[in-house]
Write a structure and sequence with these properties.
The complex is a heterodimer of chains A (about 160) and B (about 290). By secondary structure, chain A is an alpha+beta fold. Chain A contains 5 helices and 5 strands, in the order ββαβββαααα. The longest helix of chain A has 15 residues. The chains are: A alpha+beta (about 160), B alpha+beta (about 290).
Chain lengths: ~160, ~290
Protein backbone atom coordinates (compact mmCIF):
# COMPACT_ATOMS: atom_id res chain seq x y z
CA UNK A 1 0.00 0.00 0.00
CA UNK A 2 1.41 3.35 -1.03
CA UNK A 3 1.18 6.48 1.07
CA UNK A 4 -2.23 8.08 0.82
CA UNK A 5 -2.53 11.66 -0.30
CA UNK A 6 -5.10 14.10 0.95
CA UNK A 7 -6.91 15.74 -1.94
CA UNK A 8 -9.47 18.47 -2.18
CA UNK A 9 -11.45 18.99 -5.37
CA UNK A 10 -14.55 20.92 -6.35
CA UNK A 11 -16.94 18.43 -7.91
CA UNK A 12 -19.91 20.11 -9.57
CA UNK A 13 -19.38 23.13 -7.36
CA UNK A 14 -19.18 21.20 -4.09
CA UNK A 15 -15.92 20.67 -2.27
CA UNK A 16 -14.93 17.03 -1.74
CA UNK A 17 -11.98 15.92 0.34
CA UNK A 18 -10.56 12.43 0.62
CA UNK A 19 -7.40 10.47 1.37
CA UNK A 20 -6.60 8.56 -1.79
CA UNK A 21 -4.06 6.03 -2.94
CA UNK A 22 -2.02 7.49 -5.82
CA UNK A 23 -3.24 4.76 -8.16
CA UNK A 24 -6.92 5.66 -7.71
CA UNK A 25 -8.15 6.83 -11.11
CA UNK A 26 -10.30 9.93 -11.27
CA UNK A 27 -13.25 7.93 -12.67
CA UNK A 28 -13.21 5.69 -9.58
CA UNK A 29 -12.93 8.70 -7.29
CA UNK A 30 -15.98 10.26 -8.93
CA UNK A 31 -18.08 7.10 -8.95
CA UNK A 32 -16.96 5.19 -5.86
CA UNK A 33 -15.64 7.83 -3.47
CA UNK A 34 -17.89 10.77 -4.34
CA UNK A 35 -20.81 8.48 -5.28
CA UNK A 36 -21.72 10.29 -8.50
CA UNK A 37 -22.40 7.51 -10.96
CA UNK A 38 -23.55 9.57 -13.93
CA UNK A 39 -20.08 9.33 -15.47
CA UNK A 40 -19.56 5.94 -17.09
CA UNK A 41 -16.45 3.79 -17.36
CA UNK A 42 -16.46 2.32 -20.86
CA UNK A 43 -13.36 0.96 -22.56
CA UNK A 44 -10.95 1.85 -19.73
CA UNK A 45 -8.27 2.30 -22.41
CA UNK A 46 -8.51 6.02 -23.29
CA UNK A 47 -10.47 5.28 -26.45
CA UNK A 48 -14.24 5.58 -26.03
CA UNK A 49 -14.74 8.84 -24.14
CA UNK A 50 -17.66 7.58 -22.00
CA UNK A 51 -15.75 8.76 -18.90
CA UNK A 52 -15.27 12.31 -20.20
CA UNK A 53 -15.52 15.01 -17.53
CA UNK A 54 -14.43 18.65 -17.48
CA UNK A 55 -11.23 19.40 -15.57
CA UNK A 56 -11.04 23.18 -15.10
CA UNK A 57 -13.43 23.44 -18.04
CA UNK A 58 -11.49 21.18 -20.41
CA UNK A 59 -12.82 17.75 -21.41
CA UNK A 60 -10.50 14.92 -20.37
CA UNK A 61 -10.86 11.15 -20.00
CA UNK A 62 -11.23 10.43 -16.31
CA UNK A 63 -9.96 6.84 -16.78
CA UNK A 64 -6.57 8.31 -17.73
CA UNK A 65 -5.88 10.72 -14.88
CA UNK A 66 -5.17 9.88 -11.26
CA UNK A 67 -7.45 11.47 -8.69
CA UNK A 68 -4.39 12.85 -6.92
CA UNK A 69 -3.62 14.88 -10.06
CA UNK A 70 -6.99 16.63 -9.73
CA UNK A 71 -6.10 17.98 -6.29
CA UNK A 72 -7.07 21.65 -6.06
CA UNK A 73 -8.96 21.60 -9.33
CA UNK A 74 -12.53 21.88 -10.54
CA UNK A 75 -14.35 18.87 -11.98
CA UNK A 76 -17.70 18.97 -13.72
CA UNK A 77 -19.65 15.84 -14.60
CA UNK A 78 -23.05 15.26 -16.17
CA UNK A 79 -24.61 15.80 -12.73
CA UNK A 80 -23.45 19.40 -12.94
CA UNK A 81 -25.51 20.20 -16.03
CA UNK A 82 -28.96 20.50 -14.47
CA UNK A 83 -29.67 23.91 -12.98
CA UNK A 84 -32.49 24.43 -10.50
CA UNK A 85 -34.31 21.31 -11.68
CA UNK A 86 -34.25 22.52 -15.27
CA UNK A 87 -32.51 20.58 -18.01
CA UNK A 88 -29.44 22.19 -19.53
CA UNK A 89 -29.92 23.07 -23.23
CA UNK A 90 -27.53 20.23 -24.07
CA UNK A 91 -29.65 17.72 -22.16
CA UNK A 92 -32.75 19.17 -23.78
CA UNK A 93 -31.09 18.82 -27.20
CA UNK A 94 -30.32 15.13 -26.67
CA UNK A 95 -33.90 14.62 -25.46
CA UNK A 96 -35.58 16.54 -28.27
CA UNK A 97 -33.42 15.23 -31.11
CA UNK A 98 -33.26 11.64 -29.87
CA UNK A 99 -29.48 11.95 -29.48
CA UNK A 100 -29.19 8.62 -27.69
CA UNK A 101 -30.46 5.09 -27.78
CA UNK A 102 -28.80 3.02 -25.03
CA UNK A 103 -27.46 6.18 -23.38
CA UNK A 104 -24.16 4.75 -22.23
CA UNK A 105 -21.99 7.26 -24.12
CA UNK A 106 -24.33 10.19 -23.42
CA UNK A 107 -22.81 11.64 -20.21
CA UNK A 108 -19.36 11.85 -21.80
CA UNK A 109 -20.77 13.02 -25.12
CA UNK A 110 -22.60 15.88 -23.39
CA UNK A 111 -19.47 17.02 -21.56
CA UNK A 112 -17.52 17.17 -24.83
CA UNK A 113 -20.43 19.02 -26.42
CA UNK A 114 -20.54 21.54 -23.57
CA UNK A 115 -16.81 22.28 -23.84
CA UNK A 116 -17.16 22.67 -27.60
CA UNK A 117 -20.10 25.11 -27.35
CA UNK A 118 -18.41 27.17 -24.67
CA UNK A 119 -15.41 27.64 -26.95
CA UNK A 120 -17.34 27.85 -30.21
CA UNK A 121 -21.03 28.79 -29.67
CA UNK A 122 -22.01 28.30 -33.30
CA UNK A 123 -20.05 25.35 -34.66
CA UNK A 124 -20.46 23.96 -38.17
CA UNK A 125 -21.45 20.32 -38.54
CA UNK A 126 -17.81 19.49 -39.26
CA UNK A 127 -16.67 21.31 -36.13
CA UNK A 128 -19.25 19.41 -34.07
CA UNK A 129 -18.02 16.10 -35.46
CA UNK A 130 -14.43 17.15 -34.72
CA UNK A 131 -15.39 18.24 -31.19
CA UNK A 132 -16.97 14.87 -30.36
CA UNK A 133 -14.35 12.83 -32.22
CA UNK A 134 -13.02 11.47 -28.93
CA UNK A 135 -16.42 10.04 -27.98
CA UNK A 136 -17.67 6.80 -29.49
CA UNK A 137 -21.36 5.93 -29.90
CA UNK A 138 -22.34 2.46 -31.04
CA UNK A 139 -26.07 3.16 -31.43
CA UNK A 140 -26.97 6.37 -33.17
CA UNK A 141 -24.60 6.69 -36.11
CA UNK A 142 -23.99 10.19 -34.69
CA UNK A 143 -26.61 11.92 -36.89
CA UNK A 144 -28.93 12.73 -34.01
CA UNK A 145 -26.05 13.60 -31.71
CA UNK A 146 -24.99 16.27 -34.21
CA UNK A 147 -28.59 17.53 -34.30
CA UNK A 148 -28.72 17.55 -30.50
CA UNK A 149 -25.61 19.70 -30.33
CA UNK A 150 -27.04 22.03 -33.00
CA UNK A 151 -30.25 22.28 -30.96
CA UNK A 152 -28.25 23.15 -27.85
CA UNK A 153 -26.18 25.65 -29.80
CA UNK A 154 -29.24 27.64 -30.90
CA UNK A 155 -30.86 27.37 -27.43
CA UNK A 156 -27.72 28.58 -25.70
CA UNK A 157 -27.41 31.53 -28.05
CA UNK A 158 -31.05 32.57 -27.52
CA UNK A 159 -31.27 35.43 -25.09
CA UNK A 160 -27.53 35.99 -25.20
CA UNK A 161 -26.95 39.51 -26.52
CA UNK A 162 -24.98 39.39 -29.75
CA UNK B 1 -8.00 -1.65 -14.82
CA UNK B 2 -6.10 -0.65 -11.72
CA UNK B 3 -2.38 0.11 -12.12
CA UNK B 4 0.14 -1.48 -9.75
CA UNK B 5 0.89 0.34 -6.50
CA UNK B 6 3.26 3.30 -6.79
CA UNK B 7 4.36 6.27 -4.72
CA UNK B 8 3.59 9.75 -5.95
CA UNK B 9 5.53 13.00 -5.67
CA UNK B 10 4.64 16.41 -7.02
CA UNK B 11 7.76 18.58 -6.94
CA UNK B 12 7.47 22.33 -7.42
CA UNK B 13 10.79 22.88 -9.20
CA UNK B 14 12.87 21.17 -11.86
CA UNK B 15 15.78 20.82 -9.40
CA UNK B 16 13.54 18.98 -6.95
CA UNK B 17 12.21 16.72 -9.71
CA UNK B 18 15.77 15.91 -10.86
CA UNK B 19 16.88 15.06 -7.33
CA UNK B 20 13.88 12.71 -6.97
CA UNK B 21 14.91 11.04 -10.23
CA UNK B 22 18.44 10.64 -8.90
CA UNK B 23 17.15 9.23 -5.62
CA UNK B 24 14.87 6.63 -7.19
CA UNK B 25 16.85 5.83 -10.34
CA UNK B 26 15.15 3.57 -12.86
CA UNK B 27 12.25 2.97 -10.47
CA UNK B 28 10.95 6.47 -11.17
CA UNK B 29 9.08 7.84 -14.17
CA UNK B 30 8.13 11.40 -14.99
CA UNK B 31 4.37 11.96 -15.17
CA UNK B 32 3.64 14.68 -17.72
CA UNK B 33 0.34 14.37 -19.63
CA UNK B 34 0.18 10.70 -18.70
CA UNK B 35 -1.75 9.78 -21.82
CA UNK B 36 0.74 7.04 -22.80
CA UNK B 37 2.17 6.24 -19.37
CA UNK B 38 -1.11 5.71 -17.51
CA UNK B 39 -2.54 3.31 -20.15
CA UNK B 40 0.76 1.38 -20.06
CA UNK B 41 0.59 1.18 -16.27
CA UNK B 42 -3.00 -0.05 -16.43
CA UNK B 43 -1.90 -2.79 -18.84
CA UNK B 44 1.08 -3.56 -16.54
CA UNK B 45 3.44 -2.77 -19.42
CA UNK B 46 5.05 -0.17 -17.15
CA UNK B 47 5.39 -0.58 -13.37
CA UNK B 48 7.26 2.44 -12.00
CA UNK B 49 7.62 2.42 -8.22
CA UNK B 50 7.56 6.22 -8.20
CA UNK B 51 5.74 8.77 -10.33
CA UNK B 52 7.24 12.24 -10.34
CA UNK B 53 4.44 14.55 -11.43
CA UNK B 54 5.91 17.64 -13.10
CA UNK B 55 2.55 19.34 -13.73
CA UNK B 56 2.97 21.76 -10.82
CA UNK B 57 6.35 23.05 -11.98
CA UNK B 58 5.85 26.61 -13.23
CA UNK B 59 7.15 27.96 -16.55
CA UNK B 60 7.37 24.64 -18.38
CA UNK B 61 4.45 25.32 -20.73
CA UNK B 62 4.98 28.04 -23.34
CA UNK B 63 5.20 28.74 -27.06
CA UNK B 64 7.40 31.68 -28.01
CA UNK B 65 9.72 32.85 -30.71
CA UNK B 66 13.06 34.48 -30.03
CA UNK B 67 16.75 34.16 -31.00
CA UNK B 68 15.70 32.84 -34.41
CA UNK B 69 14.00 29.85 -32.83
CA UNK B 70 10.55 28.70 -31.83
CA UNK B 71 10.69 27.52 -28.22
CA UNK B 72 8.05 25.11 -26.97
CA UNK B 73 8.08 24.18 -23.28
CA UNK B 74 8.11 20.45 -22.57
CA UNK B 75 4.86 20.64 -20.60
CA UNK B 76 2.94 22.41 -23.38
CA UNK B 77 -0.34 20.59 -24.11
CA UNK B 78 -1.09 19.37 -27.61
CA UNK B 79 -4.35 21.34 -27.53
CA UNK B 80 -2.42 24.58 -26.94
CA UNK B 81 -0.10 23.78 -29.83
CA UNK B 82 -3.08 22.95 -32.04
CA UNK B 83 -4.73 26.27 -31.20
CA UNK B 84 -1.65 28.51 -31.19
CA UNK B 85 -2.05 31.34 -33.72
CA UNK B 86 1.72 31.70 -34.02
CA UNK B 87 2.14 28.01 -34.88
CA UNK B 88 -0.81 27.98 -37.24
CA UNK B 89 0.55 30.99 -39.14
CA UNK B 90 4.26 30.26 -39.21
CA UNK B 91 4.64 26.53 -38.54
CA UNK B 92 1.63 24.85 -40.17
CA UNK B 93 3.53 21.53 -40.13
CA UNK B 94 3.46 21.56 -36.31
CA UNK B 95 -0.22 22.54 -36.26
CA UNK B 96 -1.01 19.66 -38.63
CA UNK B 97 0.96 17.26 -36.46
CA UNK B 98 -0.63 18.26 -33.15
CA UNK B 99 -4.19 18.18 -34.45
CA UNK B 100 -4.02 14.54 -35.57
CA UNK B 101 -2.63 13.25 -32.28
CA UNK B 102 -5.20 11.04 -30.55
CA UNK B 103 -8.46 12.94 -29.86
CA UNK B 104 -9.55 16.23 -28.27
CA UNK B 105 -9.70 14.93 -24.68
CA UNK B 106 -6.26 13.35 -24.92
CA UNK B 107 -4.82 16.50 -26.50
CA UNK B 108 -6.04 18.53 -23.51
CA UNK B 109 -3.63 16.58 -21.28
CA UNK B 110 -0.94 15.16 -23.56
CA UNK B 111 2.27 17.18 -23.80
CA UNK B 112 4.84 17.61 -26.56
CA UNK B 113 7.65 16.78 -24.14
CA UNK B 114 5.99 13.50 -23.22
CA UNK B 115 5.28 12.72 -26.85
CA UNK B 116 9.02 12.92 -27.66
CA UNK B 117 10.48 11.57 -24.40
CA UNK B 118 8.29 8.46 -24.56
CA UNK B 119 10.29 7.40 -27.63
CA UNK B 120 7.37 5.63 -29.27
CA UNK B 121 7.98 5.46 -33.06
CA UNK B 122 4.21 5.76 -33.50
CA UNK B 123 4.14 9.21 -31.87
CA UNK B 124 3.78 11.99 -34.41
CA UNK B 125 6.05 14.82 -33.25
CA UNK B 126 9.24 12.82 -33.79
CA UNK B 127 8.98 12.83 -37.59
CA UNK B 128 8.06 16.51 -37.66
CA UNK B 129 10.94 17.50 -35.41
CA UNK B 130 13.32 15.44 -37.58
CA UNK B 131 12.04 17.31 -40.64
CA UNK B 132 12.50 20.65 -38.85
CA UNK B 133 15.92 19.70 -37.45
CA UNK B 134 14.87 20.64 -33.95
CA UNK B 135 16.85 20.32 -30.74
CA UNK B 136 15.53 19.12 -27.46
CA UNK B 137 16.71 20.53 -24.16
CA UNK B 138 17.32 17.95 -21.43
CA UNK B 139 17.67 19.29 -17.91
CA UNK B 140 19.52 17.27 -15.29
CA UNK B 141 21.68 17.85 -12.23
CA UNK B 142 24.23 19.82 -14.25
CA UNK B 143 21.63 22.07 -15.82
CA UNK B 144 20.28 22.04 -19.35
CA UNK B 145 21.98 20.48 -22.36
CA UNK B 146 20.88 20.48 -25.95
CA UNK B 147 20.47 17.30 -28.02
CA UNK B 148 20.00 17.37 -31.79
CA UNK B 149 16.81 15.51 -32.60
CA UNK B 150 18.62 13.21 -35.05
CA UNK B 151 20.67 11.92 -32.07
CA UNK B 152 17.67 11.72 -29.73
CA UNK B 153 15.79 8.57 -30.77
CA UNK B 154 17.95 5.53 -30.11
CA UNK B 155 15.65 2.52 -30.38
CA UNK B 156 12.06 1.66 -29.61
CA UNK B 157 10.98 3.52 -26.43
CA UNK B 158 14.59 4.55 -25.89
CA UNK B 159 16.02 8.06 -26.19
CA UNK B 160 19.22 9.95 -25.40
CA UNK B 161 17.69 11.23 -22.14
CA UNK B 162 19.55 10.05 -19.05
CA UNK B 163 17.40 8.60 -16.25
CA UNK B 164 17.81 11.79 -14.22
CA UNK B 165 17.02 14.21 -17.04
CA UNK B 166 13.75 15.90 -17.95
CA UNK B 167 12.87 17.09 -21.43
CA UNK B 168 12.20 20.76 -20.70
CA UNK B 169 12.12 22.43 -24.11
CA UNK B 170 11.99 21.86 -27.86
CA UNK B 171 13.80 24.40 -30.03
CA UNK B 172 12.95 24.72 -33.67
CA UNK B 173 15.02 26.89 -35.99
CA UNK B 174 12.71 29.50 -37.51
CA UNK B 175 12.34 28.64 -41.19
CA UNK B 176 13.63 31.42 -43.42
CA UNK B 177 11.94 32.98 -46.43
CA UNK B 178 10.58 30.62 -49.09
CA UNK B 179 10.17 27.78 -46.61
CA UNK B 180 7.21 25.48 -46.11
CA UNK B 181 6.27 22.27 -44.41
CA UNK B 182 3.43 19.78 -44.08
CA UNK B 183 2.48 16.64 -42.15
CA UNK B 184 0.38 13.87 -43.65
CA UNK B 185 -0.85 10.94 -41.59
CA UNK B 186 -3.10 8.04 -42.47
CA UNK B 187 -4.97 6.61 -39.51
CA UNK B 188 -7.69 3.97 -39.50
CA UNK B 189 -9.92 6.16 -37.34
CA UNK B 190 -9.64 9.23 -35.13
CA UNK B 191 -7.45 8.50 -32.14
CA UNK B 192 -5.47 5.70 -33.71
CA UNK B 193 -1.73 5.74 -34.18
CA UNK B 194 -0.51 6.33 -37.73
CA UNK B 195 -0.55 3.47 -40.19
CA UNK B 196 2.18 5.71 -41.58
CA UNK B 197 2.92 9.43 -41.38
CA UNK B 198 5.29 11.74 -43.25
CA UNK B 199 6.57 15.20 -42.33
CA UNK B 200 8.31 17.34 -44.95
CA UNK B 201 9.97 20.74 -44.61
CA UNK B 202 11.70 22.52 -47.52
CA UNK B 203 13.43 25.82 -48.28
CA UNK B 204 13.75 27.15 -51.83
CA UNK B 205 16.03 29.78 -53.33
CA UNK B 206 14.81 32.65 -55.54
CA UNK B 207 14.88 30.35 -58.60
CA UNK B 208 12.80 27.68 -56.89
CA UNK B 209 15.74 25.36 -56.30
CA UNK B 210 15.59 23.42 -53.04
CA UNK B 211 18.37 24.45 -50.66
CA UNK B 212 17.17 22.53 -47.63
CA UNK B 213 14.89 19.51 -47.22
CA UNK B 214 13.86 17.64 -44.11
CA UNK B 215 11.76 14.46 -44.23
CA UNK B 216 10.63 12.47 -41.19
CA UNK B 217 8.65 9.22 -41.12
CA UNK B 218 6.20 8.08 -38.40
CA UNK B 219 5.58 4.48 -37.31
CA UNK B 220 7.46 2.72 -40.07
CA UNK B 221 10.47 1.52 -38.07
CA UNK B 222 11.83 1.13 -34.53
CA UNK B 223 12.23 4.92 -34.22
CA UNK B 224 10.96 7.93 -36.14
CA UNK B 225 13.11 7.88 -39.29
CA UNK B 226 14.93 10.76 -40.97
CA UNK B 227 14.88 9.99 -44.69
CA UNK B 228 18.38 11.32 -45.31
CA UNK B 229 18.81 9.92 -48.82
CA UNK B 230 15.59 11.51 -49.99
CA UNK B 231 16.64 14.80 -48.35
CA UNK B 232 20.08 14.72 -50.02
CA UNK B 233 18.52 13.97 -53.40
CA UNK B 234 16.31 17.07 -53.23
CA UNK B 235 19.04 19.56 -52.32
CA UNK B 236 20.05 21.51 -55.41
CA UNK B 237 17.04 20.33 -57.39
CA UNK B 238 13.72 21.90 -58.31
CA UNK B 239 10.68 20.42 -56.59
CA UNK B 240 8.96 19.34 -59.78
CA UNK B 241 6.81 16.24 -60.04
CA UNK B 242 9.63 14.00 -61.26
CA UNK B 243 12.03 14.97 -58.47
CA UNK B 244 9.33 14.72 -55.82
CA UNK B 245 8.45 11.25 -57.12
CA UNK B 246 12.10 10.16 -56.90
CA UNK B 247 12.45 11.55 -53.36
CA UNK B 248 9.26 9.71 -52.39
CA UNK B 249 10.70 6.48 -53.78
CA UNK B 250 13.90 6.99 -51.76
CA UNK B 251 11.93 7.73 -48.57
CA UNK B 252 10.01 4.51 -49.16
CA UNK B 253 13.32 2.62 -49.39
CA UNK B 254 14.45 4.19 -46.13
CA UNK B 255 11.32 3.10 -44.25
CA UNK B 256 11.39 -0.16 -42.29
CA UNK B 257 7.76 -0.98 -41.51
CA UNK B 258 6.56 -4.25 -39.99
CA UNK B 259 3.32 -6.00 -40.81
CA UNK B 260 0.71 -5.66 -38.08
CA UNK B 261 -3.00 -5.02 -37.56
CA UNK B 262 -2.67 -1.74 -39.46
CA UNK B 263 -1.52 -3.50 -42.60
CA UNK B 264 1.22 -5.49 -44.31
CA UNK B 265 4.70 -4.00 -44.60
CA UNK B 266 4.45 -3.67 -48.38
CA UNK B 267 1.27 -1.62 -48.07
CA UNK B 268 2.92 0.68 -45.54
CA UNK B 269 5.91 1.15 -47.84
CA UNK B 270 3.56 2.19 -50.62
CA UNK B 271 1.89 4.53 -48.17
CA UNK B 272 5.22 6.16 -47.26
CA UNK B 273 5.84 6.84 -50.95
CA UNK B 274 2.42 8.39 -51.50
CA UNK B 275 2.41 10.42 -48.26
CA UNK B 276 5.93 11.70 -48.98
CA UNK B 277 4.78 12.85 -52.39
CA UNK B 278 1.79 14.66 -50.87
CA UNK B 279 3.77 16.21 -48.02
CA UNK B 280 6.54 17.45 -50.32
CA UNK B 281 4.02 18.85 -52.79
CA UNK B 282 2.19 20.75 -50.05
CA UNK B 283 5.48 21.91 -48.49
CA UNK B 284 6.69 23.21 -51.86
CA UNK B 285 3.38 25.04 -52.43
CA UNK B 286 3.70 26.73 -49.05
CA UNK B 287 7.35 27.60 -49.68
CA UNK B 288 6.43 29.16 -53.03
CA UNK B 289 3.84 31.53 -51.57
Amino acid sequence: MADKHHIRVRLNGVEKQADVEPRLLLIHFIRDVAGQTGTHLGCDTTSCGACTVLLDGQPIKSCTLFAVQADGREIMTVEGLIQGGKLHPIQEGFHQEHGLQCGFCTPGMMMSALALLEKNPEPTEEEIRWGISGNLCRCTGYQNIVKAVQHASSKMREGVPA
Amino acid sequence: MIPPVFEYARPGTIAEAVSLLQLHGDDAKILSGGQSLIPMMKLRLARPAWLIDINSIPDLAYIRENDGHLHIGGLTREADIEESKLIRAKYPIIHETARVIADPQVRNLATIGGNLAHGDPANDHGATMLALEAEVVATGANGPRSIAIRDFFQSIFSTALAHDEILTEIRIPAPGARSGGAYFKLERKVGDFATAGVAAQVTLDADGVCTKAGIGLTNVGPTPIKAVRAEAFLRGRKLDAANIAEAARLAMEESQPSSDLRGPAEYKKGLVKELTKRALTRAAERAGK
